[in-house]
């Protein structure tokens, strides 16, 4: 079976949560006899049938990038050529240009979409886009939500509940590099014996301005791993704070070293653009206690308050500070919650379980 994943960007150009999910599905699908392909745009230009791991990527040249959306004239031609060679087309929402690709695809194929997030930031543009979006979602054979939390709290998913199936995201530990002793020693020397960690894009919805305010004056060492549009303003906010360390974007080897060393993982996202939180999964996989906000999404499907970590209201600096201080000063609590996070990961978020569920869905659609 040949499955085509479609998203606006992919490895190695970007390293976000959606890209990681596609990678896990593409690599894991091989044991089901699934030949996975990924179609995306790239500022590097076109590149057809390039191998990435055990799957194949197809890049179209990105001509314009506006309002978090890439556009490409050549992509329409390239996509129309690819679709007839596939058994199932798997879209990853949101990417408005993808809706146009679907309309222009020519040959029809069974199709599903993983609904990664509501559109939160572009509220004005959403008004114009909504008719196209609803036509696209309504044309899908299946819509997959990553958590029951999101399936019942997203207006668009509630509206199309008869098409929705919940398949939680999962990770395969074997797809990550082992923590390298030299990198562990490097980061231990740089960051000291104790620190909390954030990993992710420095974006508007990540709540990092609240996190910086929460750790100010506490003595908690905080490492922030990632790059993005908000980097300059956040570094300006933290200027003079010796306990905050901006590490920039790092590769998986460094990320695994940092996750191995940190005492707790913090994801202070305060808006629904954070639909799941793959970085929370990565930390849970390594048995770290978690801190996140209750925003009605998958973050609190991963992190259960008092079982795997602590959950606080969004954009609430005093509550976030109290949670961080509680873990910082109570290592026994942190250890118990970390063990709970690892146990929940093992029980619910194994990569094999996600891949198996999607493989069965692909087969179901292909039989039609």
Give a short overview.
This protein is an alpha/beta fold and 368 residues long. It is built from 15 helices and 16 strands.
The CATH H-level homologous superfamily of the largest domain:
Glycogen Phosphorylase B
Decide which structural class fits the backbone: alpha/beta
Q: Can you count the beta strands?
A: 16
Q: Given this structure, which CATH class of the largest domain is correct?
A: Alpha Beta
List the domain count as a whole number: 2
Number of helices: 15
Cα end-to-end separation: 14 Å
User: Which stretches of 5+ consecutive residues score pLDDT under 50?
Assistant: none
Q: In this structure, how is the largest beta sheet organized?
A: 8 strands, mixed
Mean pLDDT: 96
Q: What is the percentage of strand-forming residues?
A: 15-25%
The CATH architecture name of the largest domain reads 3-Layer(aba) Sandwich
Radius of gyration: 20 Å
From the spread of the alpha carbons, the general shape counts as globular
Per the CATH scheme, the topology name of the largest domain is Rossmann fold
Layout of helices and strands:
Layout: E1 2-6, H1 17-28, E2 35-42, E3 47-52, E4 55-61, E5 64-66, E6 69-71, H2 73-82, E7 88-93, H3 96-103, E8 111-115, H4 123-138, E9 142-145, H5 148-153, H6 155-159, E10 164-166, H7 181-191, E11 196-199, H8 208-215, E12 222-225, H9 231-237, E13 244-248, H10 252-261, E14 264-267, H11 278-285, E15 290-293, H12 299-302, E16 309-312, H13 317-329, H14 331-348, H15 351-367
Parallel strand pairs: 1-2, 1-7, 2-4, 7-8, 8-9, 9-10, 11-12, 11-14, 12-13, 14-15, 15-16
Antiparallel strand pairs: 3-4, 5-6
């Amino acid at each position: 079976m040949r499955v085509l994943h479609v998203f606006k960007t992919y490895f190695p150009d970007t390293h976000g949560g959606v890209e990681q999910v596609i990678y896990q599905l593409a690599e894991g699908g091989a044991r089901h006899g699934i030949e996975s392909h990924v179609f995306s745009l790239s500022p590097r230009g076109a590149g057809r049938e390039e191998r990435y791991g055990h799957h194949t990527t197809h890049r179209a040249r990105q001509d314009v990038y506006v309002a978090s959306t890439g556009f490409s004239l050549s992509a329409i031609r390239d996509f129309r050529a690819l679709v007839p060679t596939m058994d199932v087309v798997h879209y990853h929402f949101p990417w408005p240009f993808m809706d146009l690709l679907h309309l222009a695809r020519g040959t029809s194929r069974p199709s599903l979409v993983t609904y990664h997030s509501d559109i939160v930031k572009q509220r004005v543009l959403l008004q114009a886009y909504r008719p196209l979006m609803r036509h696209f979602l309504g044309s899908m054979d299946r819509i997959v939500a990553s958590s029951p939390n999101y399936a019942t709290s997203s207006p668009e998913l509630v509206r199309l509940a008869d098409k929705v199936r919940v398949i939680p995201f999962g990770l395969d530990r074997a797809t990550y590099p082992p923590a390298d002793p030299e990198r562990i020693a490097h980061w231990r020397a740089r960051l000291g014996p104790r620190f909390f960690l954030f990993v992710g894009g420095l974006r508007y919805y990540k709540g990092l301005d609240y996190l910086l305010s929460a750790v100010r004056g506490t003595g908690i060492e905080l490492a922030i791993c990632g790059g993005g549009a908000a980097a300059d303003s956040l570094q300006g906010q933290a200027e003079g704070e010796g306990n905050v360390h901006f590490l920039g974007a790092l590769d998986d080897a460094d990320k695994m070293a940092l996750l191995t060393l940190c005492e707790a993982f913090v994801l202070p996202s305060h808006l629904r653009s954070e639909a799941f939180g793959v970085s929370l999964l990565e930390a849970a996989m390594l048995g770290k206690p978690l801190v996140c906000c209750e925003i009605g999404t998958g973050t609190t499907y991963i992190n259960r308050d008092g079982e795997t970590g602590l959950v606080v209201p969004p954009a609430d600096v005093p509550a976030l500070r109290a949670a961080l201080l509680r873990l910082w000063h109570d290592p026994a609590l942190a250890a118990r919650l970390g063990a709970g996070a690892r146990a929940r990961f093992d029980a619910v978020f194994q990569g094999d379980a996600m891949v198996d569920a999607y493989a069965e869905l692909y087969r179901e659609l292909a039989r039609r």
